[in-house]
């Protein structure tokens, strides 16, 4: 009797375990349900599919156009035998047919080796119609870490491609009399930043991909132009992006100030270049202090400025804003100044009796 009870418990536990595994596998999803990859006669464009749990074997419905290969769990992952199961798979567009043939499609299937649960991902192959550059900001400071610029590509319907990994791009920092040496490109390996594997491979070959790093060298406005290198895409228009590079400027004193009528205050203007402080000479390089009147104060100056000495003199009661300006600065450094009439109050005294 005891043995029968024990067997029943084991069977129940196995049943519960099996049902749990099946339920979890059915909740598992791919990181993306659909892919849009570009055609290329030069390289394979890759994308990595991932699942959260289980171990899946992978199959492509059109292996001559879209291949799928299992990847190991190591970092960086490596290719496994096509029959191996994994939680990651490398999907690659292999189409070498002419771009005019239009949009092609393939189905990627992954099947769990334990539960038989099947995952599906539709992969569409099309040609690039337009490219754009995206970035978190268009203003750089000369002492900031490099800025990342990325290319996104669109098909003729305005749909965004899932990956551009493997495609080569030409990045050019436009240089002329006004913009020479304002920016420079930085390799990911030099900056110490982590980057996609395909970017490191291109950098090692002296090429650039869809992601680059750019740092500001000196103040000014620079143009960066990017275009596709693949001859099949010679008809895709290059795209330009305008970047403003600015020294990080400081005023000292940096706080709001009250000045007595007729008094003066000298400011110090300085900037940081590679963590070192450097004094800024007003009138040189386009730097200047400018007074912005309060609209309610009338047309007369509240304060005057001596640009040579960076000295502000209070000439009339009222309020004004002092701004440090430069042609490349989008957001000025400002302080508020109030000119007030001086008053006095006698100090209390105590009589002393000897």
Concise description?
With about 350 residues, the chain is mostly beta strands. It has three domains: about 30-125, Immunoglobulin-like (Sandwich); about 130-245, Sandwich (Immunoglobulin-like), CATH 2.60.40.1080; about 250-340, Immunoglobulins (Immunoglobulin-like, Sandwich), CATH 2.60.40.
Describe the structure.
With 354 residues, the chain is mostly beta strands. It folds into 3 domains: 30-126, Immunoglobulin-like, CATH 2.60.40.60; 130-246, Immunoglobulin-like (Sandwich), CATH 2.60.40.1080; 248-340, Immunoglobulin-like. It is 11% helix and 41% strand. The protein contains 3 helices and 25 strands. The chain has helices spanning 2-27, 188-191, 197-204; strands spanning 34-38, 45-50, 56-60, 66-71, 88-93, 104-112, 118-126, 130-134, 139-141, 147-154, 169-173, 183-186, 211-216, 220-228, 239-246, 248-252, 257-260, 264-266, 268-273, 276-279, 288-293, 303-306, 311-314, 318-325, 333-340. The model is unreliable at 15-25 and 349-354 (pLDDT under 50).
Inertia-based shape: elongated
CATH topology tier name of the largest domain:
Immunoglobulin-like
Helix content: 10-25%
Tell me the structural class. mainly beta
The CATH architecture of the largest domain can be named as: Sandwich
- CA-atom Rg in angstroms: 33 Å
- Helical segment tally? 3
SSE string, helix = H, strand = E?
Answer: HEEEEEEEEEEEEHHEEEEEEEEEEEEE
Q: Got a strand count?
A: 25
């Amino acid at each position: 009797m005891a043995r029968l009870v024990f067997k029943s418990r084991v069977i129940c536990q196995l049943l519960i375990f099996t049902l749990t595994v099946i339920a979890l596998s059915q909740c598992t999803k791919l990181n993306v349900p659909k892919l849009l990859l570009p055609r290329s006669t030069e390289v394979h464009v890759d994308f990595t599919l991932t699942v959260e749990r289980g171990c899946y074997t992978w199959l492509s419905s059109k292996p001559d156009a879209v291949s799928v290969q299992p990847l190991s769990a190591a970092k960086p992952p490596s290719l496994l035998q096509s029959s191996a199961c994994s939680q990651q798979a490398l999907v690659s567009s292999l189409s070498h047919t002419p771009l005019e043939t239009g949009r092609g499609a393939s189905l990627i299937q992954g099947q769990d080796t334990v539960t038989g649960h099947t995952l599906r991902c539709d992969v569409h192959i099309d040609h690039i119609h337009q490219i754009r550059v995206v970035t978190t900001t268009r203003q750089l400071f000369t002492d900031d870490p490099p800025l990342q610029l990325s290319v996104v590509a669109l098909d003729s319907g305005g749909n965004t491609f899932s990956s551009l990994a493997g495609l080569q791009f030409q990045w050019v920092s436009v240089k002329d009399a006004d913009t020479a040496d304002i920016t420079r490109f930085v390799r990911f390996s030099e900056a110490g930043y982590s980057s996609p594997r395909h970017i490191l491979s291109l950098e090692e070959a002296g090429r650039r991909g869809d992601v680059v790093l750019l740092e500001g060298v000196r103040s000014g406005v620079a143009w960066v132009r990017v275009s596709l290198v693949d001859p099949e895409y010679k008809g895709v228009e290059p795209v330009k992006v305008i970047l403003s590079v600015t020294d990080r400027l400081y005023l000292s004193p940096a706080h709001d100030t009250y000045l007595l009528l007729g008094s003066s205050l000298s400011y110090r203007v300085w900037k940081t270049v590679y963590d070192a402080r450097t004094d800024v000479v007003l009138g040189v390089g386009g730097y200047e202090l400018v007074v912005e009147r309060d609209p309610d104060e009338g047309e007369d100056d509240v304060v005057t400025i001596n640009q040579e000495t960076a000295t502000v003199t209070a000439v009339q009661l009222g309020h004004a804003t002092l701004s440090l300006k430069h042609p490349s600065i989008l957001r000025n450094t400002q302080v508020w100044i109030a000119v007030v009439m001086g008053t006095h109050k006698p100090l209390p005294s105590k009589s002393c009796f000897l």
